């Protein structure tokens, strides 16, 4: 089991280096399917978030508000990759989370959805928990259809804010990459110059 856990965590860490263009395809299962397949389902707020070095895999700590399935500890720490269609969590924001438990660790597997938390969504998942209503039949790819008009307006603003934040993050990433490439280029040129100088001195000594 420990080997299995290490393999999964390693996969999550290294998946952060790759882009969705590599062709990962996720089937849009129903909310009920995701509920049945995962060990814990809850509503919680991200109180801390730390990235694994050199990757898009993060370790988040959630303060749980509502549990729909399972008996997770509170606060709960979860590992998730933001690469390969992963979800971008923000600190101090509330989410609906589906997670898998492996030994004492919790992870969000690839292709398992995460949602922004809204009262209508909480009500819908409570009905799934109780085995009533039709919320569980909705596609996990578009459950926001159950939101009220007011909630949809709030969601639209969240998406706009997220879009702006992503633009800023991408710009910072590009600046960092350009800086690293610049330093590598300078290092290579410097090594070549030093090598040429040493070669000339060696030939003169001969």
Task: Explain the layout of strands and helices.
Layout: H1 2-15, H2 31-37, E1 40-51, E2 57-69, E3 76-81, E4 94-102, E5 105-107, E6 114-116, H3 119-130, H4 149-205
Antiparallel strand pairs: 1-2, 1-4, 2-3, 4-5, 4-6
Structure characterization notes:
- Helices cover 44% and strands 22% of the residues.
- By secondary structure, the protein is α+β, with helices and mostly antiparallel strands.
- It has one domain (2-147): Beta Barrel (OB fold (Dihydrolipoamide Acetyltransferase, E2P)), CATH 2.40.50.
- Strands 1, 2, 3, 4, 5 and 6 form a 6-stranded antiparallel beta sheet that branches.
- Strand 1 and strand 2 form a beta hairpin.
What is the total tally of β strands? Answer: 6
Largest sheet: 6 strands, antiparallel
* CATH classification, class level: Mainly Beta
**Computed Rg:** 23 Å
Number of self-contained structural domains: 1
> Which second-level CATH architecture applies?
Beta Barrel
Structural class: alpha+beta
For the termini, the CA-CA separation is 64 Å
Give the count of helical stretches: 4
Question: Which regions contain 5 or more consecutive residues with pLDDT less than 50?
Answer: 1-24
Helical fraction = 40-55%
Order of helices and strands: HHEEEEEEHH
Strand content range: 15-25%
Shape: elongated
Q: How would you summarize this macromolecular structure in one to three sentences?
A:
The protein is 44% helix and 22% strand. The protein has helices at residues 2-15, 31-37, 119-130, 149-205; strands at 40-51, 57-69, 76-81, 94-102, 105-107, 114-116.
């Amino acid at each position: 089991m420990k080997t299995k856990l290490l393999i999964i965590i390693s996969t999550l860490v290294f998946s952060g280096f790759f882009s969705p263009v590599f062709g990962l395809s996720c089937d849009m299962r129903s909310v009920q399917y995701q509920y049945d397949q995962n060990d814990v389902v809850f509503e919680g707020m991200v109180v801390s978030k730390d990235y694994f070095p050199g990757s898009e895999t993060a370790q988040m700590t959630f303060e749980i508000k509502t549990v729909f399935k399972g008996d997770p500890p509170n606060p709960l720490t979860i590992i998730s990759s933001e690469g390969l269609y992963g979800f971008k969590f923000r600190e101090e924001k509330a989410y609906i989370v589906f997670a898998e438990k492996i030994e004492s660790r919790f992870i969000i597997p690839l292709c398992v959805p995460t949602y922004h938390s809204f009262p209508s969504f909480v009500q819908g998942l409570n009905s799934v928990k109780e085995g009533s209503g039709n919320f569980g039949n909705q596609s996990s790819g578009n459950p926001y259809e159950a939101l009220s008009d007011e909630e949809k307006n709030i969601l639209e603003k969240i998406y706009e804010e997220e879009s702006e934040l992503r633009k800023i993050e991408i710009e910072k990433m590009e600046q960092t990459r350009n800086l690293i490439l610049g330093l590598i280029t300078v290092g290579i040129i410097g090594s070549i110059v030093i090598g040429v100088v040493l070669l000339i001195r060696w030939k003169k000594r001969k």
